[in-house]
């Protein structure tokens, strides 16, 4: 069956469809099958490129998830690297120091160097950091390695969302860009599952295989067609887009390539600077939306909860399930629910998911705060209700992965025009880094000084504030091209 179809398709392309054996119904069937094949191949290739890129995002997740099972070992009496509570707190948070310095340089050179080469650099950086952790067992070496990981993290969070947004067709862009957060969750789950059952050295050796796999696989993937157009390399942009859209016929991508070219030419007419990100009401609206959505995600406590998860579950007094198992459950919820959000991002839309997710996070965090207040500050016997806090922690992660987390990344890849996308991405990464550092340090300080209930109260109030703001100002970008999103932002600033 395959051979006649290929033969008939070749006849169609050459203009010879007059043979008696090729009826009108045959031609319809051929064209339908060819179109279905093209669409399927396009999505498959885009997923391959995105999944390869996201391997380094998994590595980013491991640098955070590694803390939860390892911190218990590092704080034990037979620790290979003895450390105080304050030293442990700095070791956990200092990754954000490295993350503070790489986003702006990455944003400034990504349009010159390319999305793919700049992403590939992060593989060796992660490999070096894990080798330091493996070979030099001191608190200072741990902190230095974490700073190196932070440098790589800043590049990844600046460049990879751009790459994902630029290679994806508009009807699957939400799903493709949501892979970023799924991969990040997978990094946590990877460490949560393996960490409790292997030695310190074994966990590090297993983890350092991920950046090696990333370089080996992503090296063969195409560069973003947007980058090629920015650099004036039209032939390479055409080849890249044809491969990503699963076609060998340039006519199939001619309209999209023209749209990309016109968009880039229009948006790159002026060289971008930091000032250009806020130069117009549309630019300011885009930056504000991304900053608020991403800021609510970070300041809802995500970095602290995933890093201190095992210790947090120990605090609840829930003994029916061991803390490390609860941590694995939490990581599984994050990872699995991310797949549902990937589909829903393009089906239900960004804005509904964002509002429902933020409301769920606010409610869950409020219940956790209430539980810890009665648990730590009163004499009430809560032994029969020790399950409440762990259940609400899991519920928070479920709601977060359901919408707030993936939509924040999708917005980052969609909201900005080509000439400011790189600079805006670096600004966003820096601001989120500062927020993550504050969250990680604030958690330890407030938990020790006032109580766990108060830090979760802050997390909950942040979500309630964000919910009200998003209801009035968040826009829908579902099924819109990048140029159409700019038009929608412009209209929203005029209303």
Which consecutive residue ranges, at least 5 long each, have pLDDT under 50? 1-38
Structural class: mainly alpha
Helical stretch tally: 23
Query: What's the helical proportion of residues?
Result: over 70%
Number of strands: 0
Dominant shape: globular
Overall average residue pLDDT = 83
Quaternary structure? single chain
Radius of gyration: 24 Å
Q: What amount of the residues lies in strands?
A: under 5%
Largest sheet: none
Order of helices and strands: HHHHHHHHHHHHHHHHHHHHHHH
Question: Roughly how many Å apart are the termini?
Answer: 57 Å
Question: Would you mind describing this structure in some detail?
Answer:
It is a single chain. With 495 residues, this protein is an all-alpha fold. 79% of the residues lie in helices and 0% in strands. The chain contains 23 helices and no strands. The protein is globular, with a radius of gyration of 24 Å. The model is unreliable at 1-38 (pLDDT under 50).
């Amino acid at each position: 069956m395959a051979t006649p179809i290929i033969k008939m398709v070749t006849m169609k392309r050459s203009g010879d469809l007059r043979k008696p054996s090729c009826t009108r119904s045959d031609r319809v069937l051929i064209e339908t099958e060819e179109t279905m094949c093209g669409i399927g191949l396009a999505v498959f290739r885009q997923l391959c490129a995105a999944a390869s890129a996201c391997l380094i995002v998994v590595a980013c997740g491991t640098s955070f998830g590694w803390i939860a099972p390892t911190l218990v070992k590092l704080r034990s009496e037979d620790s290979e690297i003895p450390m105080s509570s304050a030293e442990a707190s700095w070791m956990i948070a200092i990754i954000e120091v490295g993350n503070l310095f790489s986003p702006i340089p990455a944003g400034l050179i990504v349009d010159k160097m390319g999305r793919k080469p700049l992403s590939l650099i992060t593989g060796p950086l992660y490999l070096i950091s894990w080798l330091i952790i493996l070979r030099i067992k001191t608190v200072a070496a741990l902190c230095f390695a974490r700073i190196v990981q932070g440098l790589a993290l800043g590049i990844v969070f600046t460049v990879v969302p751009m790459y994902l947004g630029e290679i994806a067709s508009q009807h699957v862009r939400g799903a493709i860009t949501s892979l970023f957060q799924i991969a990040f969750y997978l990094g946590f789950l990877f460490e949560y599952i393996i960490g409790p059952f292997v030695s310190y050295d074994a966990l590090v050796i297993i983890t350092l295989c991920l950046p090696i796999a990333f370089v080996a696989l992503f090296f063969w993937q195409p560069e973003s067609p947007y980058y090629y157009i920015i650099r004036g390399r039209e032939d390479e942009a055409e080849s890249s887009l044809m491969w990503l859209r699963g076609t060998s016929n340039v006519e199939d991508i001619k309209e999209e390539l023209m749209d990309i070219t016109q968009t880039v030419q229009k948006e790159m007419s002026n060289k971008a600077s930091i000032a250009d990100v806020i130069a117009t009401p549309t630019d300011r609206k885009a930056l504000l939306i991304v900053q608020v959505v991403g800021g609510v995600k970070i300041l809802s406590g995500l970095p602290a909860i995933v890093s201190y998860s095992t210790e947090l579950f120990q605090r609840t007094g829930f003994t029916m399930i061991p803390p490390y198992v609860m941590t694995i459950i939490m990581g599984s919820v994050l990872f699995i629910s991310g797949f549902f959000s990937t589909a829903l991002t393009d089906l239900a839309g960004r804005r509904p998911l964002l509002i429902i997710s933020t409301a769920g996070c606010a409610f869950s965090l409020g219940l956790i705060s209430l539980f810890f207040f009665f648990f730590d500050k009163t004499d009430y016997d809560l032994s029969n209700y020790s399950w409440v806090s762990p259940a609400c922690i899991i519920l928070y992660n479920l709601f977060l992965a359901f919408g707030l987390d993936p939509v924040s990344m999708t917005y980052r890849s969609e909201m900005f025009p080509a000439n400011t996308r790189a600079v805006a991405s670096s600004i966003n990464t820096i601001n989120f880094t500062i927020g993550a550092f504050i969250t990680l340090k604030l958690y330890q300080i407030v938990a020790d000084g006032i109580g766990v209930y108060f830090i979760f109260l802050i997390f909950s109030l942040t979500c309630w504030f964000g919910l009200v703001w998003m209801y009035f100002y968040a826009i829908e970008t579902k099924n819109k091209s990048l140029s159409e999103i700019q038009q929608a932002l412009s209209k929203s600033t005029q209303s």
